Amino acid sequence: MSIYNSVRETLVPIHKEGYPFIAIGVVASLLLGWLWEPLGWIGALITLWICYFFRDPVRVTPQDEGLVISPADGRVSSIVEVVPPPELALGTEPMLRISVFMNVFDVHVNRAPVAGQVRRIAYTPGLFLNADLDKASEDNERSAMVIETPRGPVGVVQIAGLIARRIVGFVQEGDALTTGQRYGLIRFGSRVDVFLPISVTPLVGLNQRAVAGETVLADLRAGGPRRTFVSA
């Protein structure tokens, strides 16, 4: 194996959504370095951080039917029973909501939590409050998606945060998703909410670290006693 291939396989891939930002960073660093060398080094460090932010590592996703996998890297910030947002069109009865908060150092490529067909996608403009706040579910810019599964619909909502200014989607209504498939990306700090049937028992705890495409949040096949949860 050549040195080039060894290095290529060692480095974490960068998602193509990051290429324009990296190109801007490189050009800006060269211009700043031409004006004053220390500024060029600062620009280079920022460009390296942009590469880090848009990293898209390979994940090994459990494919057992019924498992709900985390759609995002980050901290499980809340597990609570709430009425789903109206844009999901999932009715007015409470559902189990598991929220994963991503800071600016987490991987921001989002993955489908379950396999199924995309029944609905709805974009809602809004504010850019701290995504860790509970009211961000109602006030912030967000993109909601409903995935139809053999065990009923599952809602997923990408919520823009204090720094985030763009939610990017990779799928359309009618598309078939596999569990762990990349379906979107949020730029620079945000949150993803997963809405599940009220009977489902979560398999994660508050403040637990979740890994997109790998961490099991719940099992749609297994119910359990009703429990009360609160936000972290």
Automatic annotation (TrEMBL):
* Species this protein is from: Camelimonas fluminis
- Tell where it localizes: Cell membrane
Protein name listed in UniProt: Phosphatidylserine decarboxylase proenzyme
Copy out the cofactor comment: Binds 1 pyruvoyl group covalently per subunit.
Q: Which HAMAP family match?
A: PS_decarb_PSD_A (MF_00664)
Which InterPro entries would you find in this protein's record? Answer: PS_Dcarbxylase (IPR003817), PSD-A (IPR033175)
- The PTM Pyruvic acid (Ser) maps to S190
Coiled-coil regions in this chain?
none
Site, as annotated: Cleavage (non-hydrolytic) = G189, S190
Its biological purpose is as follows:
Catalyzes the formation of phosphatidylethanolamine (PtdEtn) from phosphatidylserine (PtdSer).
Kindly identify the residues recorded as the active site.
S190
Entry keyword Membrane? yes
